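Hi F.,

I've been meaning to write this up properly since the lab meeting, where we talked about keeping a consistent format for the predictions we share between groups. The idea is simple: the sequence comes first, exactly as it goes in, then the structure tokens exactly as they come out, then a line or two of notes. No screenshots and no reformatting. I'm using this chain as the first example so we have something concrete to point to.
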Amino acid sequence: MPSRPRGLSHLPTVLVVTLSGALVAWLVLESRGAPVVAAMDRATSAEFEPLVDAGTLAAPRDIGAWSSLASSISARALAVKPAPDSTGAGAGIEAPLSELVESESVRIALERSSRRPLVQGEAEGGTPHGDWSIWRSDGSRVFSGQFDHGQPEGRWSWWHEGGAMRAEGLFLAGLLQGPWREYHPDGSLAVSWEYESGELAGPALEFWSSGSPKSEGSHDKGRRDGQWVTWHENGELRARGAYVDGLRDGPWQEWHESGTPLLQASYELGRPEGLWREWYSNGRVKAEGHFVDGKRDGNWSFFELDGNADPRTGKYVRGIPSPD
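Output, unedited:
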């Protein structure tokens, strides 16, 4: 009998069985009543390795990608119920996990061809249900989380290749709830957000890897709301202004990385309104004019980088150049 994959000491036994002449890659497991083995042949496991590795490249915020990965594995695994007089090797009833009754749960423990762990999880009826963990090809864990009948539940965590925490958040009934944190590879804080019933809400902070601030503001019902400030990586201000329901509203300013002005404008619920001024990084004026109802109106001046007039200079009426 083969040894158990690293990290699977809690499983009751590990079986390698033959299904239709194909060596099954790993697994074990148990359900209420007769033992249930969740299995994939090695050809299928080889197919899943690149899929899992590609899946681990998804950003932690892409919750749907991680859920789909677990769901795909759950649906593809086979449940093998040995016959009453069978030892579990080469005989029994074979069926997809999706055909099991809901009360039957199994644990899935997949190894890579290198014998390192690939995936550990639990499923019911072909749906993720219970604890799940995924590992990289180098043996480091990339993800750990829980499912409740296919929905994310409880704490989910991700790790960088070096082992430092990458992101963590809490799910309640399938929705993010409470603090969401992301970290740089050196362990320093990158993102600090808050969720309420799956929507961003409350204070929002982001930091560059140097530790200097990147952005500061707040969310309401999943959208930016209130005053926001952003900074360039060198510490210079990048932009400052307010949002209402995710739309720019009121005075708005932007700066080049050198600290020189880039934009001075004003918005009304996402539409530019009133005086508009832009500058090149060398300090020369780039454009100047007025907006009315989000459209250029009146006399506008445009300039090239060297200070020469741009042919767009002229009079505009509701966004359309006027010959007058």
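Notes:
The radius of gyration is 28 Å.
Residues 1-149 form one domain.

If this format works for you, I'll send the rest the same way.

G.
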